[in-house]
Amino acid sequence: MSKIVNKGTVYLIGAGPGDPGLMTLKGRDLIAQADCLVYDALASPAMLAWLKPGCVKIYVGKRAGDHALPQDEINALLVKCASQYDCTVRLKGGDPYVFGRGGEEAMALQAAGVRFEVVPGVSSAIAGPAYAGIPVTHRDCCTQFTVFTGHEGAHKAESTLDIPGIAAAKGTKVMLMGMSRLRETMNALVEAGQGADVPAAAVQWAATGRQKSVTATVGTLADAVADAGISSPAVVVIGEVVALAPMLDWRSKLPLYGKRVVVTRTREQASELSSKLEQLGADVIELPTIRIADPTDKRDFAESVVDAPHYDWLIFSSPNGVRRFFQAFFAVYEDIREIGGARIAAVGPGTAAELKKYGLMVDVMPQKAVAEELIAEFDRKGDEFGGVANVTMLWVHGEQARRVIYDELMKRQAIVDECVAYNTVPETEDTAGAQTRLREEGADIITFTSSSTVRQFMALNLPLPRGCRIASIGPVTTATLAEFGLKPDIEAEMHTIPSLVAAVQKLK
Ligand code: SAH
User: Fold this and answer.
1) Which CATH class is domain 9-122?
2) Among 235, 236, 283, which residue has the most ligand 1 atoms within 8 Å of its CB, making it the best to mutate?
3) Which residue ranges make up each domain of the chain?
4) Helix (H, G, I), strand (E, B) or coil at 328
5) Do domains 260-289+427-506 and 294-426 have the same CATH topology?
6) What is the pLDDT at residue 405?
7) Which residue among 124, 179, 204 is best mutated to probe the pocket of ligand 1, counting the most ligand atoms within 8 A of its Cβ?
8) What is the distance in A from the centroid of ligand 1 to the CA of 252?
9) Which residues pair with 346 in a beta bridge?
10) Which of 34, 66, 133, 306 could form a disulfide with 89 if both were Cys (CB 3.0 to 4.6 A apart)?
11) Residue 290 pairs with which residues in a beta bridge?
């Protein structure tokens, strides 16, 4: 056997059943350190956001109409990664050693002299039932449980599945990978003595927004599954514990359970809205229509940031403007005090919250994040700071911003310069397959968080699914929708993400 020649360590990490919150802390820390990630279809795309910049991502799962990389090639790939990278993470759905072929990968690494560690994960065998209100054991009805696979490796000509043994086993039985042969397996179990009247359930996409489940009996499960349109990936549970589901099913009681909601913000900004909706049980499709890019005139932007400390006022029109401005600011200055004694205005609470991250409070801010409201607020509070006439102001905004702030302040004799901090461009990549999902599966609600998300969504030419309702973050976004002949079913009261989430709940 070869000696350890590889520099790196490979971590076989269980990703849990779907909800990124079910990843272990150790797993998450290692993902954040990874130089290379090898992953497949069952790992949540949200986990990719934990990677450090520059981490090499290698997908080895199934692609639409395509096969996954064969196991021996994955094994060889992991050995190769270990020779190139210090930290390779092999991420697998659920637990790596529960029907995950983690054992084979570990043996290949061991044989090649590669250091490896295993980080167990929450298996769908246990979490799947739990998310549908089914405890796999329960004091009154079982003292053991069995986990088995309904689909064996293709290399096995004859099934070695111990049907009589499983049929005779006491307690709860959980089947993974059993959907393609569900009817045959249930029939075979009944023939072998399994009670046909024993409660049984199938839970698909457990612990994700797409979760769906049915309960029936061993004898009727195949029909119930067909009626409900449930297919792989799903776990099947057999046993008296299934009868507890109506009482203990907490998930389907969540306010947005079963609702598919589209989030059109940029990838970087989507997570706050997405995670709030997911916590309420929604199936979120993140479909970023826009991306925040450098302004067309980068030199002009850089110069205006350098000059920023000379102004009496800094006016920020959006959280993106704040982020971009300070990225550029700290590339030049090291100390926040270099910003000087300028007063600060923000177009609304979201922008003010972003400023607060840099320890900056605002002097003027309307409750509603609309340019006209900011001007009204300047007029209202003018006496406190002696008005805006002959005062120098730097207005930080995106290329697409409306001109209201500039025009109105100029009318009031302020001396306004512009700092164009970013450009909003269409997001053309659809790496997570969100556009395809929207086309094929439709959606119940679509959210728009700015005028640009509306414009760019329309530019994508995707069909707005039938019956899909529209939630708008505020009046300006609503006006842009009107340009396209659309009227939102609801508008957020406060022009903030929490307020938009509240609006979506009302639509339900
Ligand atoms: N190692 C994984 C199992 C891999 S085998 C684990 O411990 O969970 C793949 C099978 O797992 C699927 O066919 C399905 O039966 C089950 N599975 C994985 N994730 C699931 C999910 N989110 N919902 C339902 N079943 C899931």
Assistant:
1) alpha beta
2) 235
3) 9-122, 126-251, 260-289+427-506, 294-426
4) helix
5) yes
6) 96
7) 124
8) 20
9) 316
10) 34
11) 426
Give the integer Cα–Cα distance in Å for 376 and 383.
13
CB 187 within 8 A of CB 220: no
Ligand 1 cavity residues, CB under 6 Å: 17-18, 42, 92-95, 98-100, 123-125, 128, 176-177, 203-208, 232-235
Q: Whose CA is nearest to atom 25 of ligand 1?
A: 234
* CATH code for the domain defined by 126-251: 3.30.950.10
Q: And the tokens for 71?
A: 């196991």
The fold of the 294-426 domain, in CATH, is Rossmann fold (3.40.50)
Q: Using most ligand atoms within 8 A of CB, pick from 47, 148, 175, 176 the residue to mutate for ligand 1.
A: 176
The first and second tokens of residue 392, run together, are: 């120098």
The pLDDT value recorded for residue 298 is 95
Q: Residue with the nearest Cα to atom 11 of ligand 1?
A: 176
Catalytic positions are 40, 62
Neighbours of 5 (CB within 10 A): 10
pLDDT along the chain (508 residues), means of 10: 69 94 96 95 78 89 74 95 96 95 95 96 97 93 92 56 94 96 95 97 93 96 97 96 95 92 81 89 87 92 96 96 96 93 94 95 93 95 91 96 95 96 83 81 93 88 89 95 96 92 92
Q: How far is the CA of 212 from the centre of ligand 1 (A)?
A: 14
The CATH fold of domain 260-289+427-506: Rossmann fold (3.40.50)
Amino acid 153: pLDDT: 46
CB atoms within 10 A of CB 2: 10
Q: How far is the CA of 202 from the centre of ligand 1 (A)?
A: 12
> Collapsing DSSP states into helix, strand and coil, what is residue 442?
coil
For residue 180, the CA-to-ligand 1 centroid distance in Å is 14
Tell me 184's DSSP state.
Answer: H
- Predicted model pTM: 0.75
Residue 6 has a pLDDT of: 62
Which tokens belong to 196? 């046909």
